[in-house]
Design brief:
Blueprint (H helix, E strand, L loop, with lengths): L1 H26 L2 E7 L6 H16 L8 E7 L4 H13 L4 E5 L1 H10 L4 E7 L18 E5 L5 H12 L5 E5 L5 H13 L6 E5 L4 H11 L5 E5 L3 H5 L1 H10 L4 E3 L2 H5 L4 E5 L1 H16 L15 E6 H6 L6 H6 L2 E3 L1
Parallel strand pairs: 1-2, 1-3, 3-4, 4-5, 6-7, 6-8, 8-9, 9-10, 11-12
Antiparallel strand pairs: 10-11
């Protein structure tokens, strides 16, 4: 009887062990890093993080209960971004949500083991972040912001909304792969639209103001603002300069237009944060970034500010208005 009881005890113990281990795994508080290139008080970024957190909660992950979220904000400063990348990697989180190419590159330099899910990265393959979109490999996957050929669409929209434009300044960050790629796409398309394009850097506010002010001395001029963290950080200045110099401008994101810009065309960024929460959930449940394909946007939105158009004495073509997802009166 004692021997039988002893064996039964061992059997029950062996059966209970995996159950206990599973319960311990479920109960363990997981750690998520959130790394944004923008400032901590940026309202648009806060809204995006809010969408990410809400989706995580819908999936069963609540900050302070079964996950702990660590935030770092780069404020468009390359030195600060490198510092915070090292800090986050040292914390050894289960997964990091990274916003834009400027955060993913420094993260990959300091860790190849921590899982990274990126959002709004234009060219992850060209930047070397993933091996391919279908099979990322390594520790990184995420959500593509757009293909570079969308940059040619911005030039087309500029000509549609302001047909007299023959010269366009292209505000871009040459320090990132995406800045070079977007500029190249605009430059390639320019002859077919009869527009001469000039690059303008945006290393800091002074360079932006000097470049746009110098370019604006002349007639038949317009502005294209390409996607980058610096464009987001300095968006109020860029919108103000376009208004001051009466430059019709095309932007890559709707928040430029809701803040007074003329027209934008690009993906719904909030959707990417919502989708990224789904990838984070899957990684926390055991899937590997290498097995999760990089996804491209399926929806682009066109936003037009009619009030700004009237100020610039522009008449928006009816066909463009009909296509718009949002028209701001």
């Amino acid at each position: 009887m004692e021997r039988r009881a002893f064996i039964s005890g061992i059997t029950l113990g062996l059966l209970a062990a995996p159950i206990a281990a599973e319960a311990q795994q479920i109960d363990r508080v997981r750690r998520i890093g959130v790394f944004l290139s923008t400032a901590a008080d940026d309202p648009e970024s806060l809204a995006r993080v809010g969408a990410f957190r809400q989706r995580l909660q819908d999936l069963g992950w609540t900050d302070g209960r079964n996950v702990r979220i660590e935030y770092r904000w780069g404020s468009g400063d390359a030195g600060r971004i490198r510092k915070y990348a090292a800090e986050l990697a040292a914390l050894a989180p289960d997964v990091i949500l990274a916003q834009g190419s400027s955060t993913v590159g420094p993260l990959q330099q300091v860790t190849r083991s921590v899982a990274i899910v990126f959002v709004i990265v234009p060219d992850p393959v060209g930047a070397g972040f993933v091996a391919s979109l279908a099979r990322p490999g390594g520790n990184t996957t995420g959500f593509l912001m757009f293909e570079y050929d969308i940059s040619a669409k911005w030039l087309e929209l500029l000509k549609q909304i302001a047909p007299s434009v023959t010269q366009a300044a292209v505000l871009r960050d040459p320090a990132i792969t995406a800045g070079i790629g977007q500029w190249g796409a605009v430059q390639t398309a320019a002859p077919s639209f009869g527009v001469e394009v000039s690059p303008v850097g945006m290393r800091d506010a002074d360079e932006i103001e000097r470049g746009i002010t110098a370019f604006a001395h002349g007639s038949n001029r317009g502005l294209i603002v390409t996607a980058s963290p610096l464009a987001t950080v300095h968006r109020d200045l860029i919108i103000a300069l376009a208004a001051r110099h009466k430059l019709p401008a095309v932007y890559f994101e709707r928040y430029f237009v809701t803040a007074g810009g003329l027209i934008s065309y690009g993906p719904r960024i909030l959707d990417q944060y919502w989708q990224a929460a789904g990838y984070v959930d899957r990684i926390l449940k055991g899937e590997k970034p290498a097995d999760l394909p990089v996804q491209a946007p399926t929806k682009y939105e066109l936003v037009i500010n009619l009030k700004t158009a009237r100020t610039l004495r522009l008449t928006i073509p009816p066909s463009l208005l009909q296509r718009a997802d949002q028209v701001i009166e």
